[in-house]
Design goal:
globular, alpha/beta, 10 helices
Length: 225
């Protein structure tokens, strides 16, 4: 299967999440995109990380703060009455939700909740603690992990960004000392060039696909809950 075919076959919520993550990377902030899907399978909201954004965010969203995460900005678009009227909501993120976002999902939604993510967060992942509180225990969790080249692409994008913006941080140190290093060193310049040339997310996926397919990284399932 070609990368173009793989992109076309990717569910719409994942394509939108990756588009948001790529938009975040282009804006100079952490490349995470999130999508909220309602119980009928309709995309209800989408947003990106805005932690390092200097400009004002869309109405109702956050920017320029360490709480301006993609998942929070997506959930903030869903009215309280709507999000709690029925269960079966889903949140899809290109990065495993942190404890902050996991808590927000727990509080904002009810009953059966699906959380899908593409890349694990080796430092700040919070899904392993979804049942650490009584409110979390009252939810019925379905955790889904995206597999394959798209999952590797999401993690690669996150690693390249964190090495650039916080080179001495724990996430950067994790990736520069791991098997990911050769892929990051070879594809980091490709990703940066695509950003500077304002290429689309599909174009950068296609450009990095051959290296990603042969990288031998990104294996692992969802955390137990």
């Amino acid at each position: 299967m070609t990368p173009h075919e793989a992109w076309d076959r990717l569910p719409a919520h994942w394509r939108r999440a990756f588009s948001q993550a790529w938009s975040a990377f282009g804006a100079g902030t952490i490349p995470v995109g999130a999508v909220v899907v309602d119980p009928r399978g309709v995309i209800a909201a989408e947003a990106r990380n805005r932690v390092y954004d200097a400009s004002a965010p869309p109405v109702g969203q956050l920017s320029g703060s360490w709480v301006a995460h993609a998942e929070l900005n997506a959930l903030a678009q869903i009215a309280a009455e709507r999000s709690t009227a029925e269960d079966g909501w889903a949140v899809y993120s290109t990065l495993e939700p942190c404890p902050l976002c996991t808590g927000a999902i727990t509080v904002a939604l009810r009953g059966r909740i699906t959380v899908g993510y593409a890349s694990p967060d080796p430092i700040g992942g919070g899904l392993g603690a979804v049942k650490a509180t009584r409110i979390g225990q009252s939810r019925e969790w379905n955790i889904e992990k995206l597999d394959g080249p798209f999952a590797v692409f999401a993690e690669l994008l996150h690693a390249v960004c964190m090495i650039a913006v916080r080179p001495t941080g724990r996430t950067a140190r994790h990736y520069t000392a791991s098997p990911w290093r050769p892929l990051i060193e070879s594809q980091g310049p490709v990703i940066a060039d695509a950003r500077d040339r304002r290429q689309s997310v599909e174009q950068i996926v296609v450009a990095t696909w051959p290296a990603i397919e042969h990288a031998g990284v990104g294996v692992g399932g969802p955390p137990s809950v």
